[in-house]
Amino acid sequence: MVNFTRLDLNLLLTLQVLLDELNVTRAARRLNLSQPSVSVQLAKLREFFDDPLLLPGPRGMQPTSRANALREPLRQALSTLEAVVAPVEAFDPAKAELTWRVAATDYMATAILLPMLEGLRQDAPLSRLAVYELQTQRFLRQAEQGDIDLIFHTRDGAPDSLHQRSLFHERYVLAGREQHPMLQSPLTAAEFCQLEQVMVSPDGGGFWAATDDALARSGLSRRVVLSVPHFLFLVETLLKTNLVAVVPERLTRNVAGLTTVEPPVDVVGFEMLMLWHERQHRDAGHRWMRQRVTESLK
């Protein structure tokens, strides 16, 4: 392995100028150094590379074979180094060709991403948005490995190792089709329990949720006759049947044909968070995207 502690990186810039000019005096002028200083640096370069590098010739200095072999790798290395240490340019969403990768449930995609989608397409037309299904057992590892940029998650179960921003507090409503005969006036808890209901079970096949916890505290139980894995199917079911559902309020916004009432049981809502890993925390494009999400929900 090369011992870089023996090499002042400024010497590499001197070498590049010397190889361009093949003249110590002209190289010194370009580097804004004295001729003796450049000669001293050339001596150090010869020692480091164990090669004369530049030899006196009839028309100036002539590069050795080793020096010629260094030309292009040296130019590329200095160009890369310059890009690394250059100031970060301001993020321009109109020119950004990025793919933002987001983990969300279908409810989160509807409640959070849909309101911002039109504005995102207008302001960042060259960008893309990839929505991945939120997998509770995998999203932390996906974030750590850089496979996911943003995660939407409730506060319950959100890992402390990720950055967090609170987006909103959600409440539950009782929803059904617009002309549902039992949703035209306030319901008693007993009437609510007699309604045939549908619920979302993300893991599949579940018939118990926060609503059932609230009812159980009062010694009541409801009739859940359908369990589905996604909110999209739930909404379609509500529109085409007499089933009802206790759902997050944002899911029902602007859905033609649905009506909502307050459930006759106190169902505790939840806080929705946006999560991201430290590696994206200071990235200008990522900061812009996070701000875009937040502003779209105001």
TrEMBL record:
Domain HTH lysR-type: from-to ranges: 7-64
InterPro entries hit by this protein: LysR-type_TF (IPR050389), LysR_HTH_N (IPR000847), LysR_subst-bd (IPR005119), WH-like_DNA-bd_sf (IPR036388), WH_DNA-bd_sf (IPR036390)
Keywords, ordered alphabetically: DNA-binding, Transcription, Transcription regulation
Pfam families linked: HTH_1 (PF00126), LysR_substrate (PF03466)
Coiled coil ranges: none
Similarity comment: family membership: Belongs to the LysR transcriptional regulatory family.
Protein name: LysR family transcriptional regulator
